[in-house]
Design brief:
The protein is α/β, with parallel strands linked by helices. It contains 19 helices and twelve strands.
């Protein structure tokens, strides 16, 4: 307790009050007691744009929420959010803006960085991707032998892989999307382990395959070794068909490889036609790049550009909600961020389980692992001092009900782990069997509602 009092004095008003409230009251209060207050519970449900967040099972009360709002004001969080959207160079280490929000800005919006409207640049690339993807999907653009390009192998690692795979898995069975995917294949090659190459190309006809190499600098070691391996896979196949002349082999590469990169000299040297190189910018962090050409190009080729446009529209809606909602208890992204800080930084909870009760979100935990742990994996604060506290949590997760038969046992036996349950009112695909009392989705959601309690 002496340590807590010393810390409160050092940290100032709001954060000190939050720590004191937890130490003196909430740490000694069982969650069951808090959940017995129906007015409290009802006040901790917020809805925005079809998303309902219920955070009543967090160890929070009205006083803590009030102090969290004050913390937001003390630390000028809204001013910092506005600065990010404005293009301020909040990545002070590299002297860069952090503008993934510009990637889904609407035509006509303006974000000016160093005198230049970056939104116009974004839409130039989007129009180029839209045209290219529609030509590939229609068959107007074909492989070297004249076959339609039905398969896409996306080569990239980290942010050039995790976000794309998450979105692909999340959307490919959606009712309005599944017909657009028919007959098309998207594979990912990230790991330099040669087994990943064989998994990514297994059963694919090279003559029907378009390869996308994703590397901003075109120097990422694992990506470039994988790219050279796939290039040889293509050329070896065509050599077996009698394509041996250098000019013909260059034509093969031009027909079957595209890139997302800013290094036009390196992509040209690799054999990629300049018209098939799609750019992005140094204000796009890799882990936030799924809304750039990094994600838009491969996803448009397989899911259809209209699908990706809808996805960008959804991201834009949440961006606006985040920017414009000034009350903490109504701002879902800000609430989730502050609750995460409170759980780790105040309560000392070291881990967070991400538990989507949707098989379509099977790659969501891996995506969040990178977004959160790479972003918060820091040892130096913005003012240069060495950080002695934890800066983030260990993220893990698995779709329900799979996780219930895996690691929930440890959670139920008293290990305190923050948990975020994600469910859907309607399934992407419905199944109801004659003679069964409930549908498959209702069975899933029964588990979803039961487990948090």
């Amino acid at each position: 307790e002496m340590c807590i009092r010393d810390r409160v004095r050092m940290e100032g008003d709001a954060l000190g009050a939050i720590r004191r409230q937890y130490a003196e009251v909430l740490s000694k209060t069982h969650l069951r007691t808090l959940l017995g207050d129906e007015n409290r519970n009802a006040s901790m449900i917020v809805e925005a744009d079809g998303i309902v967040l219920d955070y009543s099972r967090q160890k929070l009360n009205a006083e803590t929420l009030s102090e969290l709002q004050r913390l937001v004001e003390e630390r000028k969080i809204f001013e910092r959010i506005e600065g990010m959207f404005r293009g301020d160079k909040i990545n002070f280490t590299e002297g860069r803006s952090v503008l993934h929000v510009a990637l889904r800005a609407e035509t006509g919006d303006r974000i000016v960085v160093e005198g230049h409207d970056v939104v116009a640049d974004v839409h130039d690339v989007l129009h180029k991707i839209e045209a290219f993807s529609k030509q590939v999907r229609s068959g107007d653009i074909k492989g070297h032998s004249g076959k339609a390009l039905r398969n896409v192998v996306s080569i990239g690692i980290g942010g050039s892989y995790l976000g794309i795979e998450f979105v692909y898995e999340a959307l490919r069975h959606a009712p309005q999307v599944s017909d657009r995917v028919q007959g098309r294949v998207l594979r990912f090659l990230a790991n330099v382990d040669p087994a990943d190459f064989y998994r990514a190309t297994e059963g694919l006809d090279p003559e029907e395959t378009l390869v996308i190499i994703i590397s901003k600098t075109f120097t990422t070691a694992e990506t470039m070794l994988n790219a050279k391996t796939v290039r040889e896979w293509l050329l070896s196949h065509y050599r077996g068909k009698g394509v041996t002349e250098a000019d013909q082999q260059n034509a093969v590469l031009a027909a079957h490889i595209a890139a997302v990169s800013t290094n036009l000299e390196a992509t040209k040297s690799f054999g990629i036609n300049t018209s098939r190189v799609f750019g992005f910018w140094d204000w796009v962090g890799g882990r936030f790049s799924v809304c750039s050409a990094v994600g838009v190009l491969p996803l448009s080729l397989v899911l259809g550009y209209e699908t990706v446009a809808e996805f960008l529209s959804g991201a834009r809606a949440i961006d606006r909600h985040f920017l414009q909602t000034r009350k903490l208890t109504q701002n879902i992204p800000l609430l989730l961020g502050l609750i995460g800080f409170y759980n780790n930084g105040v309560q000392g909870i070291p881990a967070r389980a991400i538990l989507p009760y949707s098989q379509a979100l099977l790659r969501f935990p891996a995506h969040i692992q990178q977004l959160d742990m790479e972003s918060n994996g820091k040892r130096v604060a913005h003012d240069g001092h060495i950080i002695t506290d934890n800066t983030g949590v260990l993220n893990f997760g698995e779709p329900g009900t799979n996780g219930q038969h895996s690691f929930y046992q440890l959670l139920h036996q008293g290990r305190v782990v923050a948990a975020e349950f994600i469910g859907y009112a309607r399934p992407q695909k419905a199944v109801s069997l004659e003679g069964e009392q409930v549908s498959n989705h209702d069975e899933l959601m029964s588990n979803f509602f039961a487990q948090p309690d």
